[in-house]
Write a structure and sequence with these properties.
Helix 1 packs across helix 2 and helix 3 crosses helix 4. The radius of gyration is 22 Å and the shape is elongated. It starts with 14 loop residues before the first helix and ends with a helix. By secondary structure, it is mainly alpha-helical. It contains 4 helices and no strands.
Length: about 110
């Protein structure tokens, strides 16, 4: 038995936006198509831009830490590199999400 839909989410769109959504919906109703897109979007993990930015943030962290260590005269061992990479990987997804959220709010 299907779960009854009892809650409503609503938004206003322009005539052009509605026409685009109607075109994308094809034979489906616009509301059905929008519901499917909303559910699919909320169900997936990080977006492609978040994944790419996370990798760039991690790479930036590694390069800056490596450059600082070398400029300070610290020897760069395999163990040190593994620690740098692990630390960069720990924080990259959250750092990317924070940066994207700030950018969406109009903050650098």
């Amino acid at each position: 038995m299907a779960t009854p839909r009892t809650k409503c989410i609503s938004t206003k769109v322009t005539v052009e936006e509605y026409a685009r959504y109607a075109h994308l919906a094809g034979a489906q109703t616009v509301s059905g198509w929008v519901r499917d897109v909303l559910v699919a979007t909320a169900s997936v993990g990080p977006s492609v831009d978040q994944i790419v930015l996370a990798e760039v943030v991690a790479l930036r962290t590694i390069v800056l830490n490596l450059q600082f260590a070398l400029a300070s005269g610290e020897p760069m061992t395999s163990e040190t590199m593994h620690r740098l990479i692990a630390r960069a990987d720990e924080d990259k997804v959250q750092a990317a999400a924070d940066r994207l959220a700030a950018a969406r709010r109009g903050r650098p």
